[in-house]
Amino acid sequence: MLTFVGLGLYDERSITLEGRDALEAADRVFAEFYTSKLAGATVDDVEAFHDVEIEVRDRAGVEQEPDPILQAAESEDVVFLTAGDTMISTTHVDLRLRAAKRGIDTRIVHGTTAEAAAASLTGLQNYRFGKATTLPFPYAHGADGVPRSVVDTIEDNRERGLHTLVYLDIKVGTGPKGPDPDHEEYMTADYAAGLLAEDLDTVGVVVARAGSPDPVVAADALSALGEREFGDPLHLLVIPGDLHVIERDALASIGGAADEVLPDPL
After folding, report:
1. In this structure, are 60 and 128 located in the same domain?
2. From CA 217, how far away is CA 2, in angstroms rounded?
3. Are residues 34 and 129 in the same domain?
4. Do residues 105 and 230 both lie within one domain?
5. Residue 135 in contact with residue 168, Cβ under 8 Å?
6. Residue 48: domain span
7. What's the number of CA atoms in the CB half-sphere (13 Å) around residue 113?
8. Which of 23, 106, 192, 211 has the most CB atoms in a 10 Å sphere around its CB?
């Protein structure tokens, strides 16, 4: 049996009770933290809190060399851990499909997602989000500035009145000069806002450390957000589309946006 467990958003306590039960019953526990991470806990913290030993796999160890995970799951109860929800990344879907081809039973224990938290924390209505996008570091896509595909996604959503969730790049094990096992880099919202401000003259909403005891929500012009600091990772950025009056009030009250910065409500 291979059970995929989402750890939630922030630390060793963000997991669901069902996920904790799965950990307690597991013979072996694997994890990856290159697609996302728990900003409020180390692997040691998770191991100590749940009294388990975690075998952390890098990208190659999940995508190219998954046999140790799959072989263990053929005869033992194996848990595969990720931050957030366990099936948001196609990497994990691929591993599940590989398990199915080998006749291995799989199960999913969900954790909450950054997308759900972004809507909850900002007051933007979740059903009014369009296609999400990821903003990469310039060195990761080989050019300066923002990829045209990112700008197109935001503009297409805004034409339809929809909000855009912008995931910010995470680089673990790979840096500007290529593979580097010691490299760990997280794009910050101020950096992202500054990049986007070069192409978009609009409002942005920062969400920092969702799931933590002290999350930050800040709404302002992208250029202004680019001049601020929002503390430790992980960060997200939302580009709002049309605003319902309640959403506009939320960005003013919760996000601290000045009245003149926000567009008129629907």
Report:
1. no
2. 37
3. no
4. no
5. yes
6. 2-109
7. 13
8. 192
Same domain for 104 and 176, yes or no, is: no
- Looking at the DSSP bridge assignments, the partners of residue 55 are 30
Using the 3D structure, point to which of 109, 142, 159 is the last residue of a domain.
109
Give this prediction's pTM: 0.89
List, for residues 93-107, the tens digit of each pLDDT value. Answer: 999 999 999 999 999
DSSP strands (E only) in 113-242: 133-135, 164-168, 170-175, 178-186, 203-208, 216-221, 235-239
Average pLDDT over residues 46-70: 95
User: What is the CATH number for 201?
Assistant: 3.30.950.10
CA dist., res. 125 & res. 141, Å (int)? 31
Asked, for residue 220, whether it belongs to a domain, the answer is: yes
Task: Encode pLDDT of 110-162 as tens digits.
Answer: 999 999 999 999 999 999 999 999 999 988 877 788 999 999 999 999 999 99
pLDDT, tens digit, 9 for 90 and up, residues 1-13:
999 999 999 999 9
Nearest-angstrom CA–CA distance, 23 and 28: 9
